[in-house]
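ugh ok fine here u go
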Amino acid sequence: MSQISAKTVKELRDKTGVGMMDCKKALDETGGDMQKAMEYLRKKGAALAAKRAEREAREGVIVVKINNAADTGVILELNCETDFVARGEDFTGFAEVIAQTALESGIDSAERMMNVSLSDAYGSESVEDAIKTMTGKLGEKIELKRLECVKTEAGLVAGYVHPGSKLGAMVKVTGENTQESVVFAKDIAMQVAAASPIVVERSGVPSDYIDKEKEIYRQQALSQGKPEQFVDKIVTGRLEKYYQEVVLLEQSFIKDSNAKVQDVLKDFIKQHDMQMTIDGFIRYQLGE
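structure:
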């Protein structure tokens, strides 16, 4: 067997990102054939992925991608095992490529994404195979936990990712797609990420949620010795506070705690003489 040159090992390292020793071994095992060595490393990644399948992958990143027209957006969560890997350029770059590919392909779920091919930089592999290759490269379980795509024909989509990439949100808005409305919608996405609402409007709160909260408040009031005739009024008051916590439009605006989101929305509509409604949102927090 011919001796493998350091230049060849480095070339394989540049192509795959795998460690020098593993590249040297792959070339030794394949007689110095570059393509066979790359396939060898991919198979090794698949083997490692199988071995680590039962391990927990609780670290990772949230990525949000919005297209230039601001009418389509993708949000995803890509997991790994350690924060050290999650902060590395290989992992974050991989997550960005998956999100961008999903955006360009209109993919709306993690399951559908697994069969989509990535760019030449990832060997044109499917996401499923590229995850196995990345597992071999980084030595940790990699998992595309969830992915969603939002589209609109009568408004815009905006997104926000909190520094650290552990928390992100997207909002869908009906109204004119202008520079001002995009900026405003991004503020709403930031609101969603920071304040964690569950619905846009009060009418959207599930009835079983309300019944559960009422019962909790009732039992709390009774256990505190409140007179029975005052309990209903106490429950109503506490339920109002609950709405202000979980209903987006009724939350205090993160940029002005003296104003409600619905008031800020009304002011924006009046100031810019346009109609706008917040139709929905998606919020991802790492590990939830």
